[in-house]
Amino acid sequence: MATLQKKKVKNYAYWYIVESRRINGKPRPVVLKYLGTAENILQHYEAETFPDDLISYSHGGVMALARAADELGIVDLINRFAGPTRRGQSVGQSLLWIAINRALAPTSKRNWTEWAQGTSLEKIYATRLPAASASFFWDQMDAVSDQALDAIRTELCQRLLATADSDLDTLFYDTTNFYTYIDTNNLRNTLTRRGRNKQKRHDLRQYGLLMMVEERRRLPISWEVYEGHRNDVDVFGQYLPRLAKSVRSLRPDGPISHTLVYDGGNLSRANQKKLERLGFSYVARFPLGWFPPAMALDDRALTPLEGHAGYRVWRQRARLWGRERTVVVIHSPRLHRKQWANLLRQLGRCLVKLRECAAELAAARSRRTRRAQEKKLEACLKGAYLNRLITWQLTEDKPGFFRLAYRVDHGAMERLKSHVLGRRVIVTDRDDWSTERIVAAYHGQSKIERVFRDLKDRSFISVQPNHHWTDHKIKVHLFTCVLAYLLSRTVYENALQAGYEGSMPRLMNDLNSIRLVCRMEKRTRPGRPRLRWQLEKVDPQRLKIYRSLVPESSEPIERIPG
Q1: Which residue in 405, 377, 402 sits closest to 393, CA to CA?
Q2: Which of 409, 442, 508, 517 has a C-alpha 20 to 30 A away from that of 322?
């Protein structure tokens, strides 16, 4: 049976819970627990009766990103090229804090302070957070010139590639755009223009983003912002020299040839000449209609592609745009099924519209013009291949009154199904590459498309909505968003090595769920309360991943058990 025993040391009484046990056949007191002085026992009793005050902070994601930024020296890098400290805060620190917010819980600059107060930023950086308003961050963003942004981007990418073990042999290029809510009458902004928006917001002003991504870790190594009304062909041609210069600066001692993979929307004869003159090799999708032999190939001429179930290919040297090039024609059964189903849907909708037009003309009681009816029929036939499949005739029975006849060319449908749908044409100068590698490089375009999806994810990086309306602030805002992506990607790569199996946005959510608790212990004597810090109880697997990113010795507090 356990009993309480008191022991006096220098006139102070200390209490123990003791139990009598036989040791070597003799009874001996064994201390089960040390209770301390009577005051300690009272404090413990009051703590159990009256719980401590608890304050909980979001910690895991902030700490992991801050540690990744510290290893890359982000703050010092930005401060080296940016202007002087503003409002008592370094520009590098401010931009890093914006980037961390974009990666974890994207919000406006006005709401940044509210978010930061719910995180452990103050504890991590051992500083008081500034009373940051939107104007505070605008001042910090103004301190970074366009030239400084270019220099920061180049050196940042150099540091990332030093740990990525990438020789930049294969690069992926693509463009996207972001709509804004900038007023139509704002004439001081030159970047945002109306154009064909990829999110179908053609009614809003937009700006474009071009990006080049390396193959191994899907890291952006170069990006530029351009006017939103420009088409992809013009942009590609203008920025090719800058992209080449950027690649050379990242790997001055690297391979002479870099293979650029890009989509057919950037292709033109002039751009192709410029690309070859700059020393780039290439893998590009060629529009099917620009290479008629691809549509004349019989299925028997296509051979199965190893490692790609169902794929069949045809490879040959062909003369295109004045020189011999390697051409690969791919037939994908999955793409064929999707295109065929989409064609049937479009055809069905078109026939319904034509039927309605024919009925309307048959019941007409007023005169109509031929030109107006032809325009209406042309609008009905908008869609891929519909002009090939449907023939129509507009007959004027009497002045101003028409009759419509139409039919579906089933022979053209069969030719389209057997010789066009599901096929892609790839053109390259990498004659030394196997067909499998060429096809894999073409499919690698999905890497940069995934980067764009992450940048548009409203719960992750979220470039939109854009709360800035000057050209320069839009560029700095986009820089902080790409910086957020680069830091998140660095953390994610490290987590994958530790056995993590989820996506990058999910990792950020998992890290966000790791919270830091500040416990203020009740005291019987007057004075400041004692603070104790610890992590909330968390799933062991999640904690294992977190500890692989942030060892316990790297925590910014005295000791965080967990």
Answers
A1: 405
A2: 442
> What letter represents residue 389's amino acid?
L
Q: What is the DSSP string of 149-165?
A: HHHHHHHHHHHHHHHHT
Among the listed residues 155, 115, 113, 158, the one whose alpha carbon sits nearest the alpha carbon of residue 134: 113
One-letter identity of residue 146: D
Residues 438 and 379 in one domain: no
Residues 218, 265, single domain; the answer is yes
Q: Mean pLDDT in runs of 10 for the chain (562 residues)? A: 79 82 78 80 60 77 93 92 78 91 89 88 80 80 90 90 77 93 88 89 92 90 92 92 87 72 90 90 89 86 86 90 90 93 93 92 89 90 87 89 91 90 92 91 91 89 85 92 94 92 90 85 64 82 90 67 40
Q: How far is CA 431 from CA 53, 85, 354, 363, in A?
A: 70, 54, 49, 63
Q: Is 248 inside any structural domain?
A: yes
Residues 63 and 138 in one domain: yes
Q: Do 407 and 265 share a structural domain?
A: no
pLDDT of res. 164: 66
Q: Is residue 492 part of a domain?
A: yes
Residue 70 inside a domain? The answer is yes
* Residue 235 falls inside a structural domain: yes
Q: Which of 54, 78, 13 is nearest to 521 (CA)?
A: 54
> What is the arrangement of strands in the sheet containing 423-428, beginning at the earlier edge strand?
220-227, 206-214, 170-179, 258-262, 280-286, 423-428, 323-331, 312-320, 303-304
Number of domains composing the chain: 4
Q: Which helix (H) or strand (E) holds 323?
A: strand 323-331
Measured distance CA(371)–CA(376) in Å, rounded: 9
For CA atoms 291, 295, 300, 304, give the dihedral sign: positive
